[in-house]
Design goal:
Elements lengths: L10 H22 L4 E5 L6 E5 L9 E2 L6 E2 L8 H5 L5 H31 L1
Antiparallel strand pairs: 1-2, 3-4
Helix pairs in contact: 1-3
The structure holds zinc ion (ZN) (2 copies).
Length: 121
């Protein structure tokens, strides 16, 4: 990108564009490196076990290796990972990232509007 002098009116806008690009790239990178290592704690006996989540999957049943209890998702949660693990499932992680991306774009849109108004006044 061409260097813009400090006094140039478009500079603030260019800075916002740069920031938005950076944030979007970060969100995309995070999406590519989903957290798959987690540990599930049994609510019945407290037994904790390290698990690796499948990148595409949710888990609807999980048998505790401590007490043998079959865990099911808490009502309203999408899966066992979301209910009992230290990290939400990859599907949920993707959804959160998507939402973060959308709010970044919304935020950038609002900043642009504010700049435009300030310049017109
Ligand atoms: Zn248990
Ligand atoms: Zn889930």
């Amino acid at each position: 990108m061409a260097q813009t002098p400090a006094w140039f009116p478009g500079k603030a806008e260019a800075a916002i564009d740069d920031e938005a690009d950076t944030l979007e790239v970060l969100a995309l990178q995070a999406g590519r490196s989903l957290v798959l290592e987690t540990s599930i704690t049994c609510p019945a006996c407290g037994f904790r076990r390290e698990e690796t989540m499948p990148e595409t999957g949710e888990l609807h049943f999980y048998t505790c290796s401590g007490c043998g209890k079959v865990l099911k998702p808490i009502y309203g949660d999408c899966c066992v990972y979301c209910s009992y693990a230290t990290v939400v499932c990859p599907n949920e992680q993707r959804r959160e990232l998507e939402e973060a991306g959308q709010s970044i774009r919304r935020h950038v849109g609002e900043l642009r509007e504010t700049l435009k108004r300030e310049r017109e006044e």
